[in-house]
Amino acid sequence: MHRRMIVLLSIFVIASLMGGCGKSKTSITLAGSTAFQPFAEKLAEQYMSTHANVSITVQGGGSAVGVQTAISGAAQIGMADLVVLPEEAKQLTPTIVARDGIALVLNPANKVINLTMQQVREVFNGKIKNWKEVGGADSPITVVSREAGSGTRSSFEQIVTEISLTKDALIQDSNGTIRETVANDPNAIGYLSHGLLNDKIKAIKIDGQECTTELITTGSYKLVRPIYLLVKGTPLGEVQNFIDYILSADGQQTIKANGLIPAK
After folding, report:
1. Distances (CA, A) of 254 to 22, 104, 141, 180, 187
2. What is the pTM of this model?
3. What pLDDT, in 10s, does the model give residues 187-206?
4. N or C: which end of the chain has fewer CB within 10 A?
5. Which residue has the higher pLDDT, 18 or 163?
């Protein structure tokens, strides 16, 4: 019996050692932009399907989190959707992997189809408070915005300019929650990634220009920001390989097919 136990233990040890001889997985964490998060998840899934030695985890948190986690090393790749990167991002290596329109969205029940940039500014500043002031129903406007640190919010405010967000605004922590809030409130107005539009909400024109792939590409639609991947130092190994994949024809086609604008 004692001898049998020794044999079984030996087999277990040998099997463990053999298992340890296999190639260990490379782990990559991405964190940051909630607008790019679902696209990064799709791209990671595709990459891992042909790279069994790589494990990729994608987390949100907003663009400010993307910058900080890349700096601290908590994430190998930070994601940021900002018109202008913050000063501290100068210590990171940026790569633009896509571009994205910021759509101004209403509930489909709202009859308003166009706002001027000045009207957008005054709505979010709280100067215009009722839809009747811009050709809509006699109903109070519910302003819905992202939290401080959001790349979508920073880009929206940088492009529209001169926005001091109304204190009455409802603050949401992701593009997805903005979409759900607007979908459930006929008087709401919000903004989100063009790539996350669906039939629960409607995108309106700004200065007569629609938020479409064509008008974003030509520059006619003005609310557009780049999507950055940020790496501390020089990207190496599988980190560089994954970024290269996103910039490849296959990766850029995935970006385009899912609603974003390719980097090139």
Report:
1. 32, 24, 36, 25, 34
2. 0.82
3. 999 999 998 999 999 999 99
4. N
5. 163
